[in-house]
Amino acid sequence: MATHIAFLRGINVGGNIILLMSELKSICDDLGFENVRTFIQSGNVVFESNLSEEVLMNELEGALQDSKQKRIPVIIRSVNELESVISCNPFPNTNPAQVGVLFLSTQIPKDLLTDITIPSPEEVVVSGREIYIHYPNGMGRSKLKLPAMTQQGTVRNINTVAKLVKLSQDTINKR
Q1: 126 forms bridges with which residues in the sheet?
Q2: Nearest residue to 144 (alpha-carbon basis) of 102, 109, 105
Q3: Separation in Å, CA 157 to CA 65, 95, 102, 146
Q4: Tens digits of per-residue pLDDT, 30-61?
């Protein structure tokens, strides 16, 4: 059984789509995911399944659509992929709470940032299916506007990613 991490986009933010983590856990349990554990209210869930990333994403998005009557994008990563996200952090000497990782389900074109102006002091690095963003003044104060394709992704800071890796490793070690 492989351990996966799902990131839900746009829940429990601004009151638009409210989803209790107990409800998310129940949805995942009903889908047959095993050892389901949620982390904080922003829609992070660790679970085990032998299904592919694409099937997991489609099943979870479908179940969330049925439950909330709204589309909630889901991004799936493996533990190894999240470990790589942490080890490849291009801003390792900064405050981890000020480094956001934008997760997308598809490869990001390397030239994605060619035609945008990055307001200082933010720094942005594209890597695979992630975009790392250093927000030295905090995410809430940023004026950074990324291209439209990134609106289907979801951001977590490096602290959250590290905690999800730890939670995932705990799940693996309990086997």
Answers
A1: 131
A2: 102
A3: 26, 10, 9, 17
A4: 999 999 999 998 899 999 999 999 999 999 99
pTM above 0.70, yes or no: yes
CA distance readout (Å), 167 to 62, 109, 135: 25, 31, 26
Which band of pLDDT confidence, cut at 50, 70 and 90, is reported for residue 119? Answer: confident
Long-range contacts of 52-58 (CB under 8 A, 24+ apart): 53/4, 53/78, 56/4, 56/6, 57/6, 57/105
* 3-class state of residue 132 by DSSP: strand
**CA-CA-CA-CA dihedral for 43, 44, 47, 51, to nearest 10:** 70
Q: What average pLDDT does the chain have?
A: 91
Q: What single-letter DSSP state applies at residue 6?
A: E
Number of H helices, E strands in the chain: 4, 8
Convert 26-91 into a string of H (helix), E (strand) and C (coil): HHHHHCCCEEEEEECCCCEEEEEECCCHHHHHHHHHHHHHHHHCCCCCEEEEEHHHHHHHHHCCCC
Q: In what side-by-side order are the strands of the sheet with 154-157?
A: 123-127, 130-134, 99-103, 154-157
